[in-house]
Structures are given as structure tokens and as C-alpha cells.
Amino acid sequence: MAEASARKLYLHIDSVSKSFGAFQALKSISLDIYEGEFVCFLGPSGCGKTTLLRAIAGLDIQTSGRIEQGGRDISALPPSKRDFGIVFQSYALFPNLTVAENIGYGLVNTGKRRGEVQARVAELLSMVGLDGQERKYPMQLSGGQQQRVALARAIALWPGLLLLDEPLSALDARVRLHLRTELKHLQRQLGITTIMVTHDQEEALAIADRIVVMNHGVIEQIGTPEEIYRSPTTPFVASFVGQMNFFKAAASGAGELRIGNIDIVVPHASEYGKGEFHLCLRPEDVQVRGIRPDQGNVLEARIEGLEFLGSFCRAQLSALQDDAVRFQADFSINAMRDLDLAPGRSLSVALPQDRLRLFTSDQHR
Amino acid sequence: MAEMTMTAPRARRAEIAEGKKPPIIRPKASSDDFIMRGCLVLVGVFFMLTVVLPLYALLKKSVEDANGGFVGLANFVAYFQDPALTQSLENTVSMAVISTIVTLALAFGYAYALTRSCMPARGLFKAIALIPLLAPSLLPGLALVYLFGNQGVLKSLLFGESIYGPIGIIIGEVFFAFPHAVMILVTALSTADQRLYEAADALRAKPMKTFFSVTLPGCRYGLISAGFVIFTLVFTDFGVPKVIGGEYNVLATDVYKQVIGQFNFHMGAVVGLMLMLPAVVSFSADRLVQRKQVALLTARAVPLTPKPRSLVDGFSLLLCLMVSVFLLAILGMAAFGSLIKFWPYNLTLTLSKYDFGALGTGGWGDYFNSLRMATLVAVIGTTIVFVNAYMVEKSNGFRWGRNLIHFCAMIPLAVPGVVLGLAYIFFFNAPNNPLNFIYTTMTILVVNTITHYYTVCHLTAMTALKQVDAEFEAVSASLKVPFYKTFWRVTVPVCMPAIVDIGIYYFVNAMTTVSAVIFLYSSETKLMSIAALNTEDAGNTAQACAMGMTIVATSAVLRGIQALVAKRLQRRSQAWRMR
């Protein structure tokens, strides 16, 4: 964040709320986006991420709150008075116009000469890797190619802000992976401030400079992909991004924590006081090799089941000391071979102290 | 959203005033928004003048006495005390009920044969079923006169009963309503899921059981909807009972007699309102039923492909042949009648009946009036309908206004032609109406016909527009292109098939309509369909047939042109259209 704040503020969103009748889709959202940043709005469907994007675009103007773009108050302006390019999930390409006519649609209207328009369209086509396709109609292109045309059309007028509403979710998995790399590359090359809405956490982690995790119309957490993954600040973020084990834990108030009848050591546990907690640990952080005898939180567990997932195996474990304590652990194929792991076997595992995260149980998942 | 700020509850406004809530953003309207709202206001004025105020004038007339004083329900009381008038109410209901049952049964069998059997020539049978749409509704009446009239070829089949009366009305109405019912039922029967039939087979259900537990429930909304449509059509039809009804009075002919025959405008208004009653009831019931209709065909459904069943296919062919012979016989008899020198004594073929000038009537001038009106209705009507549907569907904010306009566009479906015509007399002929000058001009005929057939066109346009990507307007706004450029360059070309459909529907109906315009024409603007009715009234059935056939031929030629245009459009647009 320190690095980001040194950069120039581009989009300032202040206490933006949006109601549809009695339903509050956005609850006082505040957010700053810096010039040249690639930001992802991530969350489950209905979390308000698309509503926020449409408010920024002026397509569904917020009920209250202020939006400034490049220092200009755009809160009440219609879309045509704002400065953005947009790509929708459906691409919204004009089916009866050729690729070139689609891309040049806004340019022609600016009163540019034909030669200038053609030159810009050719430049954009080669930028998105569609040289020589200008005379085709959208229906004659593949989904991935259509997406590129939509992108070229969106950046044709050199907008200061690029808005992407789930642009990749209509594509095949393989094309999607390929295109998201290209999208990121193009965004870097142009240096255009970009906001992408997605429900795919993997996509957000791979592509974004910063992720805004949203749920029920509020922002749960803002951070770099690594911060979001490594240090989720709410149980919702912990469960929504990546895989996560949740343990119900009780604290006596004297710095001790118990899961079932197993004692667990957590740094600074005494600060939390007495009560019920959620203890979180990612399956890949369950330690199975190189456990030192003095490191603590070591327990014996039985393998209840194994799921082969290609490069690793996900094991369902239950603690021998209390078989109500169940959790998942990811073991590399090497570890599987070396330790000869199979369902029914028991083994020692450690829950590393520095990877455990504690949430009070009144925080919502 | 503008409407939100406008309708914010008072309590909320108070909170804002006290500073509890942040100020509500009032979106600034763009020039696009202003143009769109301007168009919506214009359309609102259009509906005010063509639907709302005329109907209000009709309602007002029904509670006034001859001097314009308010008399409450006295006219209605007088109506129910007049045995002649209540008799025709009874007649109308029984005609409508019987015709509905007969048409529904025939149309269901026919539609079932078209969609679920493997009989040959299904395309041809489908085309034959739609023939009556090309004809004015008085044409079946004329043909029945030739077939079963006092000198009819098949008179003996009636065993001494007269065709002039209930029998003639029912046969004519079945002919007239049949294509409407078939179209609805074909749609209802086409949406079937093969998997349901496979499941029934796997459960060893007998064919009869499958029919009653899968087929019928699957199309019950279609049946109900078709039933309402036929009932309303027959209940309000003017052409058939006018020609073949004889002494058997129904409501639609009563309105005509009260107003044109006896100048009793107030009683005419009362009968007109009676005529609207079942239309309003069935219209609301239909809306209700459609709301309950759930999508039977989900994306995963497997469309049904009928398998050959010799018994079913045989019966299907037999039924379709019989119905087709009936439909073609009616049309053929009218054509034959128009080409005969002097029925039944001199059967020499002649074209003399098509020399419309010979009898001192309007001659071919009436035909050109019809053509002119149909063209104007098609061009102006289609433009108004499509632009209006676009504004209702695609503009931002102003939601209550858009809903109100959408509602206004639905009203004409519940207003029978005779009633609309009568309402126009009351409204436009009022001496204090500044629009009085359009009375007896071509303008009033065009406006009336556009309004009369508005709803079906509106729904066609809305359906087409809903299939257009909802984000085109958003994209063009982001590219700083005003909406009307995108409307012209993208929306109109994409919707062209629907626009052509609307235009043809308007043209054909404008050529065949009688009911509304009969109150509104003048000697300069007489239409061919009205000329046919008057000629028949004067006893010249043969020439009336010739006039009816001229209309049929014109509509048929236009349908042919439409098919060609559609093919060309498809070829030109196949590069970018999915199908």
C-alpha cells in the first residue's frame, strides 16, 4: 500500500451507496484507485461488484456518495460525459458491422478523416493480434477473437479508464488462461487504469495489482493478491479465496486455546481474551515433513480419504486424540511416495504457528 | 435513477434534511435522455388522443341523455328492459360459445397433426390454414350465400334450415377464427420436451394416458389463450353476421343499426360497452394466465421429433384434408361467384364483375383508397410502433412513464373495432374538438387503423428488441456516439425481420378491415372492403365477391413479396446473422 500511495490518485470513490427499492446493493463503499493500476473487484454473485462498476461507468448511478475521476467530480454525469471504455461479458459487438466498423465505431463519430480512422483501426487490430480480420463479422469469429474485438473497440478512443465486466467468463478454460495473460500484458503496455469484475478468485490472483474483495455490498478487504491470500483479514476472505480449514476453538482467556480436546499454541493468543474463535489454516500449510520435536502443535492424525488432484493429493484427516477434529491437508506427490501415505494410515502433522489465523466467532464467514 | 429520487418517501426526505443520510445523487440527464423522454412524451400524447380520450368520450356518451345531461345508468336500464336488445346479447354469447368450441376442437386436431404427426405435406397444410387471414371477414359470408343460400349448390344439405342466421354465422366465424387458433396452438404444441415422452414410454404408459398426462397439460395455457382469442374475435366480429346473419341480431350489428340506422348514439355507446366487457375480461384473464406460464422448454430440453404412427398419421391426414377442403371451398366459391355471369342461371365465365365502375359505385377509386390507406398505415404505423417500443424498452429512468405507455399500447387489444370506430365518432366529431378537421379525412382512417391493430405489433417489436443485446446503448454512450445513430445503424438492421412482419401485418389488416372504419369513411375515402359490404347490402353479391377477391389477391401478392424480401434479407445478412 505504501508503494501505491506514492503514485497518483486517479479514481476516488467516497461513501458510495446504491439501493434498489428496499434492497441495499452497495453500503457506503470508499476506495481509491491509482493511475495505471489493474484492480479486480472479486466476490460471489450478488455481492455488488457489478453494481459498483456500473456506478463508476454512470450506467446505474449510485443513490448517494461521490466519485471523482482524475480530480473531476463525475458523481451525477451520464455515461457519455465520462471517460471510460467498457467490455461486457456478452461483448455487445454490433453483429451487422464488420470487425473494422465495430472498432472504428466511436472514431468515425469524432469526425476524424477516413485515413486516420483506418490507421488507428489497423493499429488496434495488430495490438490485439487480429491483423487481416477487419472484414469479418463478429459471428464469424471465435469467442476469444470476439473478446479481443470488444477490447480493441473499448480502447479505441484512448480512454483514461478501462472497465471489464467479467470479460473472460464466457470463454473455454484454456482460452481464458491464455487471454488473461495477454490482457495483463496489453494493460501494462498501455499503462491504462483498469478495473475488472470477476467471481473467479484464481483469475483475480493471477492478473490484479490489487484485489477488492466484496460481499453483501461491502468491501471485505483491499490488498495485493499476496496479502489477500496470505493474510485474509476476515473469515469471508479466508474462505472465499483459496482453500481453508476452519476449526472451532475455545480460549480460556489465559492464552490457551483448545480445538476439541487438543491444546493449540497461537502467538499473542492472550490478547484475544476468553471466548469462541475460528482458527484457520490452509491445507497446503499443514506440515508433514521436517517436524521439529519442540515446535508445538504436533498431532497424530488418521488419513480418512485421499483425493488425487494431479500435482498433489488432498487428504481428509481426523485427529487420533479427538476424531471430531477433521481437516484437509495437501501433500505433494513426492511426500505421498516418500511417506507411503494411504487411507487408513496414521501420521504426525504439525499446524505451524505462523500460518494459523484467528478470527472471533461473531465475524461472519 | 431519477424515479428513485422523485419518489423518495417523505420520511426519508426528512432524514436527509436532518443530515442523517448523505445527499442523494440526482443524475444529470444527457442529451440522449432528453431526446428519449421527449419521444416518450410525444407517444404519450399520441395514445391520449387515439385511445384514452376517445374511450372516455364513449363512456361519457353512455351516461348522458340526448341533450347531453348526466343520467347515470338510465341508458343501461333502458337497454336491459328492451327485449330485442337483450335477445341479441343472448345470441352473441351463444354464437361465441358454439363457434369457440367448434374452432378449438378443429384447430387443436389440425395443430396436433402439423406438429406431432409424420403425415405428408405439413408445410402446405400450414399455409392453407392461414388463408382466411388474407380475406375480409365478410367474404366467408358471401361464399356461404353461394353454397347454401336460397339458390345455393348445397342448399339441400341444410334440410330446409336457412343459412341466414346462426348456422351461417357459426360456419363463417369458424373460417374467420381458425388461423388465429391454429397459430397459437402450433406454438404451444411445438414446445415439447422429448424426454417427457421417453419417460412416459419407459413407465409403460399407454398412448392415451401419455396424451392426457403429458401432451394436454403441456399446452393447456395455449388452449386457454386460443379459447379467449376465438371467443373475443367471434363475440365482436361485425363482417360475418352483417352478411349472413339475416334477422339474427348480434351486438356488433346492433351498434351499427343503433348508430347508422337510428342515430341513437347513446344506446350505441351502451351496446359498445357491452361489447367490450368480455374482451376486457378475457384480456385480463389471458394476462393472468401468461404470468403463470412457466418456461416448459429449458435450455437442456430435447426438442420432440415425431415418430411415424400409422393410425395417428392417417387420421391427421384425413382431418387436415377435410379442413383444407372446407377452407378452400369457401375461398373457391367466392372466387367462382365473382367470375359467373348470372348465378345460377348463366354460368358463363366473365370478368365483368371486376368492372367496378359500371354500377355507379366508387369503382377502382375505392381500391386505390384502400391501397393508399394500407400503405400509409404500414409505413407510419410500423415507424411509430418500433420507435415507441424502442423507447419503452431501452430508455433510462422515467419508469412510471414507460410503464404507463406500455399499458396504453396493450389497451387496443381489448377494444373491438366497432367500439373503437364509435369512440372516434364521439371524440373527433365533437364540434368543440380542435382536431375536428380530421373527421371524414384519410387521416382519421389511418390513425384509427394504426390504433386498432397496435397491440400485436407492439408485442412483436418488444419481443424483437428484448433479443437485442441490452448493452448496445451503454457501449455507444461510452464511445460518445448518440443513441439515435446506433438505433439507425445497428438496432433497426438487426430487427429488420420483425419490422417487415409488422409492416405486412398492418398492410393486410388495413386492406381487410371493416369494423372500425365503417363509422369513419366519407365518399372520398371509401375503402374497397366497405364498398364490398355496401354492394352486398344492395343485393349485388357477385360484385361484392369480386371486391373481396381483389383484396385477397392483393394481400396474397404482398405475402409473396414478403417471402421474397425475407429470402433476400436473409441472404444479405447471413454473413452476420446466426441463423
TrEMBL record, chain A:
It comes from the Bacteria. Keywords: ATP-binding, Cell inner membrane, Cell membrane, Membrane, Nucleotide-binding, Translocase, Transport. GO terms for molecular function: ATP binding. SMART domains: AAA. The keyword Transport applies. The keyword Ribonucleoprotein does not apply. Transmembrane segments: none annotated. InterPro entries: AAA+_ATPase (IPR003593), ABC_SmlMolc_Importer (IPR050093), ABC_transporter-like_ATP-bd (IPR003439), ABC_transporter-like_CS (IPR017871), AminoethylPonate_ABC_PhnT2 (IPR017666), Mo/tungstate-bd_C_term_dom (IPR008995), P-loop_NTPase (IPR027417), Transp-assoc_OB_typ2 (IPR013611). Residues 11-241 form the ABC transporter domain. NCBIfam families: PhnT2. This is 2-aminoethylphosphonate ABC transporter ATP-binding protein. It comes from Dongia soli. The lineage of its organism: Bacteria, Pseudomonadati, Pseudomonadota, Alphaproteobacteria, Rhodospirillales.
Automatic annotation (TrEMBL), chain B:
Residues 89-286, 367-570 form the ABC transmembrane type-1 domain. It is found in: Cell membrane. Pfam families: BPD_transp_1 (PF00528). InterPro entries: AminoethylPonate_ABC_perm-1, MetI-like, MetI-like_sf. The keyword Membrane applies. The chain crosses the membrane at residues 34-59, 93-115, 127-148, 163-189, 210-235, 263-283, 317-340, 373-392, 404-425, 437-456, 503-521, 541-561. Keywords: Membrane, Transmembrane, Transmembrane helix, Transport. It is a multi-pass membrane protein. NCBIfam families: PhnU2 (TIGR03262). Belongs to the binding-protein-dependent transport system permease family. This is 2-aminoethylphosphonate ABC transporter permease subunit. It comes from Dongia soli.
